[in-house]
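Notes from the 1:1 (GR / supervisor)

We went over the backlog. Supervisor wanted to see one worked example end to end before approving the batch request, so GR pasted a single chain during the call. The sequence is below; no edits were made to it. Supervisor asked that the structure be written out right there so they could see what the output format looks like.
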Amino acid sequence: MSVLRVEVVAAEGITWEGDALSVIARTSEGDIGIMPNHEPLLASLVPCAAEVLTVDGNREVVVVDGGFISVAENRVSILSQFAKVAAEIDLKTAEHELAAAEKRLNAGDIDDETRHHFLRAQAQVKAARLTQGH
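Structure output shown during the call:
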């Protein structure tokens, strides 16, 4: 059986790595699913909760705030300025961050930094809820 070797790399270093059966992430073109023997690919990511189905049947969720996904020869690299494993995200803190970003957007503060902050907070809330079963 073929497996994928997955690495999620952020500015501070490797956030998660391991063997997987599949990876789902959101590119600028929409969601993409990667399975073993996928054709080579390089795509830009938007802030999202990437899901990795590990070989032992667990689901790892990793939040990224954009970046790139590269696929070649059963290796998947997700490169992002910010990445965090969902199990390390406090849902209440993430919800508070999302509410603050949403409030700034609703007040008319719609610069790129605020929009990016909102999307990253939204991805963190989604990831935390996925791993906590909400």
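Supervisor's comment: Residues 20 and 56 are 8 Å apart (CA to CA).
Batch request approved.
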